[in-house]
Amino acid sequence: MTSTPLNTRFAQLFQLSSPIALAPMALATGGALTATCAQAGALGLLGGGYGDLAWTQREYTLATELLKSDAASHARLGCGFITWKLDENAEALDWVLTQKPCAIMLSFGDPRPYAGRIADAGAQLICQVQRLDQVAQAIEAGASVIVAQGGEAGGHGANALEGRSTFTLVPEVADYLAAHAPNTLLLAAGGVADGRGLAAALMLGADGVLVGSRLWATTESLAATGAKTQATHTSGDGTARSQVFDILRRKNWPAPYDFRAIRNDLHRALENDIPGLKANPEPARASYDAGIKAADFSRAHATAGEAVGLIADVPNAREVIARMTQQAHALLTQ
Questions:
Q1: Is residue 307 within 8 Å of 152, Cβ to Cβ?
Q2: Would you tell me the crossing angle of helices 195-203 and 317-333 to the nearest 10 degrees?
Q3: Residues of CATH 3.20.20.70 domain(s) within the chain?
Q4: What would the pLDDT profile of 173-201 be if each residue is shown by its tens digit?
Q5: Are the CB atoms for 215 and 23 separated by under 8 Å?
Q6: What DSSP designation does 257 have?
Q7: What is the pLDDT of residues 291-315, one digit of tens each?
Q8: Quick check: helix, strand or coil at residue 102?
Q9: Separation CA 84–CA 224 (nearest Å)
Q10: In CATH, what number does 9-223+315-333 get?
Q11: Cβ–Cβ under 8 Å, residues 119 and 97
């Protein structure tokens, strides 16, 4: 690849045309979205999420099929998992490793128990952190790449007490890595939705970015059409981070993690009494379940982060990556 501001160490490691990784969003980052991002020159990380074996096999196989005649793109195919769910059952990880992925991303838990088998399979280990004090553990696990996730991110992340802002977390982690593990690469996550965010991340010391919400709102994403439409009409003021949707979805997430989504009518009705919701969740769950069934996003959730205010359309993923890349390149070279 030619020498450009976007030909970072991360781009070189995975032979990318742009230093962008697709966030492995559970139940949204399926085979089609992953394959399209890989074909567009980004790192495609399938959303293995909660470790459902059948779902992971189906979607990873779809991605492999879509990339079967494109060896260069297939070499940019990986998968991500929620680490604390692997602690309960790691069969989906073990199956993916038989498929020779280029990378495995682990988030929300101790990656060290899985590092050996990931390395033995020849995959690069990517570890997501939300705080500086988690970085040393990721380095000990042998992470090739660390993702510094700010609280702006959609979906799961650190709660308000424990979370950090992307803008300050990324350069602090960059400084730590420069001093303690200079060969470990760094991605910024949380609030990156256009070329300005990509350029800013590189200026803050990152080697690239992990993009969630902006690629969630694409035609290939498995997110519901109504959720994507709601996102295009929501400003960055319109999301909230709380336990509400985890309780409604019967997801028993450990502290200190909670969930950012669009702050819809049902969320607003419940957000000020979390103890009451936990004590008697069934009426609210019935309303939520009915909202899912009816595709009513005043009750069903739309998983988007604070970058939702930068999302005005639902194009294909290739177009999103091209736009981000072109805008970042212009900003960094002008």
A1: yes
A2: 50
A3: 9-223+315-333
A4: 999 999 999 999 999 999 999 999 999 99
A5: yes
A6: E
A7: 999 999 999 999 999 999 999 999 9
A8: coil
A9: 26
A10: 3.20.20.70
A11: no
Q: 111-123: buried (b, 16+ CB within 10 Å) or exposed (e) per residue?
A: beebbeebeebeb
What is the Cβ-side half-sphere exposure of residue 85, based on CA atoms within 13 angstroms? 18
- Residue 305 · residue 155 · CB < 8 Å: yes
Q: Which of 99, 178, 105 is nearest to 145 (CA)?
A: 105
CB within 8 Å of 221: residues ≥ 6 apart: 28, 29, 30, 33, 215, 228, 317
In sequence order, which residues have a C-beta less than 8 Å from that of residue 300 and are 6 or more positions away?
224, 226, 227, 264, 288, 291, 292, 294
Q: For the chain, how big is the Rg over CA atoms in Å?
A: 19
Unique residue bearing structure tokens 């490793």: 97
CA 148/CA 126 separation, integer angstroms: 11
Torsion on CA atoms 170, 174, 180, 185, rounded to nearest 10: 100
Q: Compute the distance between CA of residue 22 and CA of residue 20 in angstroms, rounded to an integer.
A: 7
Phi and psi at residue 67, to the nearest 5°: -105, 10
pTM value surpassing 0.85: yes
Length of the chain: 334
In the structure encoding, which two tokens stand for residue 155, read together? 């979906």
The pLDDT tens digits for 200-235 are 999 999 999 999 999 999 999 999 999 999 999 999
Distance CA 197, CA 268 (A): 29
The Cα 115–Cα 137 span in angstroms is: 11
Give the residues across from 77 on adjacent strands.
Answer: 44
CB 191 within 8 A of CB 184: no
* Both structure tokens of 150: 């700010």
The Cα 82–Cα 328 span in angstroms is 30
Contact (Cβ atoms closer than 8 angstroms) between residue 181 and residue 190: no
Determine the Cα–Cα distance for residues 195 and 192; give it in Å rounded to an integer.
Answer: 8
